[in-house]
Design goal:
Elements: H1 8-11, E1 18-20, E2 25-29, H2 35-42, E3 47-50, E4 55-59, H3 62-70, H4 75-85, H5 92-103, E5 108-111, E6 123-128, H6 131-139, E7 148-149, E8 157-161, H7 165-174, E9 180-181, H8 209-219, E10 228-232, H9 239-250, E11 254-258, H10 261-274, E12 282-285, E13 295-299, H11 300-303, E14 326-330, H12 337-345, E15 350-355, H13 365-372, E16 375-378, H14 381-386, E17 393-400, H15 407-412, H16 415-423, H17 427-437, E18 443-447, H18 451-461, E19 465-466, H19 472-484, E20 489-492, E21 505-510, H20 518-526, E22 536-543, H21 547-555, H22 557-561, E23 566-570, H23 574-581
Parallel strand pairs: 5-9, 10-15, 10-16, 11-13, 11-14, 12-13, 14-15, 17-22, 17-23, 18-20, 18-21, 19-20, 21-22
Antiparallel strand pairs: 1-2, 2-4, 3-4, 5-6, 6-8, 7-8
Helix pairs in contact: 4-5, 7-13, 8-9
């Protein structure tokens, strides 16, 4: 067959920012006029892989497309977006793959038998859209013990036990077949929950439009296929209010699971301040308290505690001790692996995951998709910044030389030791102190990975220190002191990465991190994003010419996807620091 050559006008639009390649990677020219607009348009259906200075690389993956389809973003929408911004025609094979892959969602439907009572029925159907799909699933060894072919072969469906609902979805996703779950969810114990018009603290409360849209996307019409999923919003955008808005719409007994006791106390304070709930309706379930009330707030840590590695998890029964109608998984990207086992069982309960990023460094994004639910709502960080809902922020990387007396030790060290030597660079402490002096009007968080380094720095700064060993009462006291302005500087370990509300923090100085964690980078910047009247600044101190540079580039990927530029400066003298702080 002979192909007609394409006309030049059909082949090239030189002002467009995208190049779509046949291996399903997408190159974004960050200098093109429409680059920022295009970046926001890619967020629903593409994943950022690399973000060097000039060309950012995105990739289309099955999970990214299925998340998009679950949120109502079709393959045609994605293809239209690529066509709008692409410099060259989209390879035909990529368009075909996008349609085929997106089309897999909905080809397997999980349903309840007709006229069955959702509260008492103990088995479900898995319906295949075609004979080839039915035969493929029937031949899969992984499914043999979980699915039984229906007696009526013409139905193209399988029977499964209700208790296997989650694990079946999980395993089918691994086989490349996402399940559209249309089984109605059970209503839990009723509970009258409503949002206040005026908070107890005295400020007026108005749920923002995007927070209402996020709740709409999760609750839906309360019918089949709704009531479960993940909400992705940046730190500082009010994910807790979204959770409370969902509670107010469902009006049911709710279990909230979050990262630590400080976050538990924050959730309880927010619930009392912004809803009509009374103190005797809210329980704390942690290592310190074991109350089960109509609304109970627990930690992942207490749920995953067990006396020894071979014992069962004694606190898992919390999930069954009340007729929960809603479970809120706060910071769902941190959901511990043992809890996935429970979420597999709890498929009859409405559930929402709240997070700033679906990135999991353990690669378990598929578990979140199949067991908690697909992404239902997402909004670009920069869009909220432009609207004034989160603070404007600048990211600045300061590169510091390694002391000469450490060069040989670093050269002969293994990879892990190299990271420790570079992170522990003693010259960083001096730079931290000078940056603090250059930001006299700011509330400052100094955050790092290594406790000994933080202890020395806290002592030199005369600032309070929070680590994993700090008692919960002392943590709450230090956070309160910082919020009130009594303490202008606090030094924190990674325990403060998540679910801590420090609205007046305007500067963060990161002196060390967890290797190349993108998730951690997003969360640490998030400590600064509560709306404020000044630009937030996020400083990262990197030892030049070491593994920290490579890890730093990896950590920055997610924020680059959201539109944040990293300004990189080499520390030479105090004048170079003044440039960074200006």
């Amino acid at each position: 067959m002979r192909y007609k050559p394409l006309k030049y006008s059909a082949m090239l639009n030189p002002t467009n920012p995208l190049i779509v390649q046949s291996d399903r990677t997408i190159l974004l020219d960050v200098h093109a006029p429409l680059a920022e607009e295009c970046r926001n348009a890619l967020i629903p259906f593409a994943e950022l892989e690399r973000s060097p200075e000039h060309l950012h690389t995105y990739r289309l993956t099955p999970l990214s497309l299925w998340n998009a389809v679950s949120a109502g973003f079709t393959a045609e929408d994605a293809i239209s977006t690529l066509n709008e911004y692409s410099r060259f025609p989209i390879p035909q094979a990529v368009e075909f793959w996008m349609k085929e892959t997106s089309g897999k969602f909905g080809k397997l439907k999980m349903t309840i038998p007709e006229n069955a009572d959702a509260d008492t029925c103990d088995f479900l159907f898995l319906e295949a859209a075609s004979i080839p799909i039915y035969k493929e699933i029937n031949a899969a060894k992984q499914m043999k013990d979980l699915l039984s072919p229906d007696a009526d072969e013409k139905k193209l469906r399988f029977v499964l036990k209700l208790v296997n609902r989650g694990i079946v979805k999980q395993k089918l996703l691994q086989l490349g077949w996402p399940v559209e779950d249309l089984v109605p969810l059970r209503d839990g114990e009723p509970l009258e929950v409503s949002m206040r018009e005026k908070c107890l603290s005295g400020s007026s409360l108005k749920v923002r439009d995007y927070q209402k849209k996020a709740a709409d996307a999760l609750v839906g019409d309360k019918g089949p296929g709704s009531g479960f999923g993940t909400i992705v919003l940046p730190c500082g955008a009010g994910k807790t209010i979204v959770g409370m808005e969902i509670m107010a719409r469902l009006k049911t007994s709710t279990l909230v699971v979050t990262t630590n006791i400080s976050a538990v106390h924050q959730w309880i304070a927010e619930l009392l301040d912004k809803t009509n709930l009374e103190e005797d309706q809210i329980g704390e379930y942690t290592g310190e308290e074991k109350e089960i009330k109509p609304v109970t707030v627990a930690t992942y840590q207490v749920l995953t505690w067990r006396p020894d590695p071979d014992s069962p998890y004694p606190h898992f029964d919390l999930f069954r001790k009340r007729g929960w109608g809603l479970i809120i998984y706060d910071e769902v990207h941190l959901l511990p692996a043992p809890v996935f086992r429970i979420t597999a069982e709890l498929q009859t309960i409405r559930r929402v995951g709240l997070t700033a990023t679906l990135i999991r460094e353990d690669g378990c994004e598929g578990h979140v998709f199949s067991l908690v639910g697909p992404k239902r709502y997402d909004v670009p960080w920069k869009e909220l910044e432009t609207s004034g809902w989160i603070a404007e922020a600048e990211c600045i990387e300061i590169r510091i030389d390694l002391p000469e007396d450490k060069e040989i030790e670093y050269a002969v060290a293994n990879q892990r030791a190299k990271h420790r030597i570079a992170s522990d660079n003693v010259l960083k402490r001096d730079v931290v102190k000078k940056l603090i002096n250059l930001c006299p009007e700011d509330r400052i968080i100094v955050i790092g990975q290594y406790i000994e380094q933080l202890e020395i720095l806290a002592q030199e700064l005369g600032a309070p220190l929070i680590t994993g060993k700090t008692s919960n009462a002392e943590r709450d006291r230090i956070y309160a002191s910082f919020r009130s302005g009594e303490s202008r500087i606090i030094v924190v370990s990674k325990v403060a990465n998540f679910a801590i509300d420090l609205p007046d923090a305007s500067v963060a100085i990161q002196i060390s991190g967890t290797f190349g964690s993108r998730q951690e980078e997003a969360q640490r910047l998030g400590r600064l994003l509560r709306p404020k009247n000044r630009k937030a600044r996020f400083f990262t101190l990197i030892t030049r010419g070491t593994v920290e540079e490579e890890f730093g580039m990896h950590r920055q990927k997610f924020l680059a996807e959201q539109g944040y530029d990293y300004r990189i400066l080499k520390y030479v003298d105090d004048e170079s620091l003044r440039e960074a702080a200006d």
